[in-house]
Amino acid sequence: MSSITREEPNYFGAGPAYLPTEVLQQAAQDLVNYHGANLGIGEISHRDKRAINVVDETKQKFIELYNIPDTHEVLFLQGGGHTGFSSIATNLLANFAKRTGKKGKGAYAVTGSWSAKAVEEAQRLGVDVEVLTNSKEVFGSYTDIQPFSEWKKPNPEETAYVYYCDNETVHGVEFPFIPQFDGIEVAADMSSNILSKQIDISKFGLIFAGAQKNVGLAGVTIYIIKKTLIEQLPEAELRELGIPVTPIAFHYPTAIKQNSLHNTLPIFTVQILNLVLAKLIKDGSLPEQEKRNDRKSSQLYQILDKHADFYNLPVAKGVRSEMNIVFTMKSPELEAKFLKEAEQANLTGLKGHRSVGGLRASLYNAITEKSATLLAEFVDKFATENK
Amino acid sequence: MSSITREEPNYFGAGPAYLPTEVLQQAAQDLVNYHGANLGIGEISHRDKRAINVVDETKQKFIELYNIPDTHEVLFLQGGGHTGFSSIATNLLANFAKRTGKKGKGAYAVTGSWSAKAVEEAQRLGVDVEVLTNSKEVFGSYTDIQPFSEWKKPNPEETAYVYYCDNETVHGVEFPFIPQFDGIEVAADMSSNILSKQIDISKFGLIFAGAQKNVGLAGVTIYIIKKTLIEQLPEAELRELGIPVTPIAFHYPTAIKQNSLHNTLPIFTVQILNLVLAKLIKDGSLPEQEKRNDRKSSQLYQILDKHADFYNLPVAKGVRSEMNIVFTMKSPELEAKFLKEAEQANLTGLKGHRSVGGLRASLYNAITEKSATLLAEFVDKFATENK
After folding, report:
1. Which residues lie closer than 8 Å to B218 by C-beta, 6 or more apart?
2. From which residue to which does any coiled coil extend (chains A, B) (predicted)?
3. Identical fold between B42-280 and B284-386
4. Could you please report the per-residue DSSP string of A103-126?
């Protein structure tokens, strides 16, 4: 491990986000001199055995951590949320067309700005979109999730997939349930809560996540996909049906066939994922991580609730995110004072998203309980002093 | 700069490729603790001023190095060659449609496996492709380039762009001229020779290059694009004309409007680019780099030519690549012996591409003259000893 040091930051940015210092120190070593090769892992061909090992090891750790059954594949692509939006729509329509001979619809739950963006991108590409629930229309804002029983029910004969965002990073809304449909597979965006808790993979047709919040640096996206969703009609037939052809770099069947190495994968970025996952396994895997995340967010929410006359929590209790805790105060001046004093106390990255304002504390996997406690104490003290 | 060390490798891999040790040492530092912030540059939001500075600085260095005129924009996207193939086709068709109201063709020069792949991808997506020259058909293999006067001439009324690959990494063929057409802009893949020499940017409608050969790690692609090629028809009209809509993450007008930050750019990977370019400027910019590259490749070609009875150079003299020097020997056994002894002499990454076999020495910008000379001496000695 390298000797590059830093004082532990208490950094609560929403992403790209804090990573464990020991992971970055090891990554720094691997960047310059990987396993004594006098070459960095990023300078080696992606066809080299050492690079392939990095991909295989990382994949295997996902399988281990999530207990991924044989029914599903794990793959890595470049891109992030936006390439997920487009690639899920076009790949899953192409699969539905293979199964039914038809151009299906994409059905969406809109519960925050990220799922809204997914809809926007699907429509740009020419996908027929059906919206099953839209929190903004139901509640006036993205602060709650409509009970599942009240959602519009999609027709399995016409619907290629249902899409939802499991954790809305900007609005701080997290699903407390997994929407399930007879005869339609569900695709979930877990960019900001991947590996934050145990889940039953068999309930998902597809899960995707950009690495840069919970598990690594920007530039790699993880896909977990059910094997029945892989096969597709040939491109010429897709075009005839009016289904947009997926660019080859995001074509799931090709990526799976080539072990995520059809085109050049950024192997150094995958290696950071590999190191993050190794640490997660060493530290007790998902059962322990889930408990740590519960403790971190409960502590902060409790303090915020204790000062309900001072802090405003816009998100309904039942759908509060464990990852992104959004709160506001009665004036922008007070919020500015909070940010300034927090920074003086070495607590940073707390400004809310430009579209919603206020404050946001992201308590991703890598945020230590010590950092979370320092923040909770500061939140408590600031309320007491400024009421 | 970090204290992570390595012995200088003499690594001639074709990409991802060797980077200067001092660049990687600085990058290692920036990965863990950027400018004393106790945070790595990859952990900071891409909306943070520090991240935006990295993008702006890197862009500015490209402008300085290539003397890029005001008529052109520089942008960075994720992806690599394959996303270049798709995004160039769909973006430039959408621009042609804006200018003419028509679905234009893409005209291609096929001079090696990379330009052949570009054609393949365009056809997958439903682009009407016209091939202007195909070396394999003319010469039986990708070992020469047809004189420009003999190329098919595209019709500017129907042609959105002409595409060619300036340096074919696999086959070791580099263009000694820039193809130019009245009324049609040229798009060039310079993935493996970007910034290797001075060029006149005004002759290009578009240049693109994956970073991982000459200027950085995999995961970022550089685009230099003429402003007249940016504007596009709205998506609904494109779909009516049968033009594939570009996924938003690769939509040039959006990327330019958002300073390459519409979606999350891998800032750490851009920072490596920034460091590579800073070193290039410090070391005399392109005039000096061009001379170094000339000396490195001339020296090796001279030795290979001296032993023309022992080494076979498949590529015609006039189109030999300065970056990727391809040669074979009379038997696979002898080539294996060469590779083994080269490795013993600490000269690695010399195996030819799996599709063509033989040997390949990639003498990218970062390869020092010292490394190139050690290789040339070994090549000389091996011939003398094994004739």
Report:
1. A42, A46, A264, A265, A266, A267, A268, B16, B80, B210, B211, B212, B269
2. none
3. no
4. --EEEEEE-SHHHHHHHHHHHHHT
What CATH number belongs to B42-280?
3.40.640.10
CA-CA-CA-CA torsion sign (B41, B44, B48, B51): positive
Residue B296 token pair: 């490195």
Q: Return the residue matching tokens 């080859």.
A: A248
A45 part of contact set with chain B, CB < 8 Å: yes
Share the mean pLDDT of chain A: 97
Residue B221: exposure state from Cβ atoms within 10 A (0-12, 13-18, ≥19): buried
Q: How many CA atoms lie within 13 A of A320 on its CB side?
A: 21
Q: Which CATH superfamily is domain A284-386 in?
A: Aspartate Aminotransferase, domain 1 (3.90.1150.10)
Residue pairs spanning A and B at CB distance below 8 A? 226
Which amino acid makes up residue A377? E
pLDDT single digits (tens) B263-290: 999 999 999 999 999 999 999 999 999 9
ipTM of the complex: 0.97
Task: Name beta bridge partners: B129.
Answer: B106
Q: Do A210 and B264 touch (CB under 8 A)?
A: yes
Which of A90, A268, A353 best probes binding to B when mutated, by most B CB atoms within 10 angstroms?
A268
Which residues in chain A land under pLDDT 50?
A: none
- Residue B36 one-letter amino acid: G
Asked if B208 contacts B78 with a C-beta cutoff of 8 angstroms, the reply is no
Q: Which two tokens stand for residue B101?
A: 């109201």
Query: How does DSSP assign A133-168, residue by residue?
Result: EEHHHHHSSSS----GGGSPPPPTTTEEEEEEESEE
**Domain residue ranges of chain A, discontinuous segments joined by +:** 42-280, 284-386
DSSP state of B130: E
B239 → closest Cβ in A4, A18, A126 = A126
Distance CA B285, CA B10 (A): 23
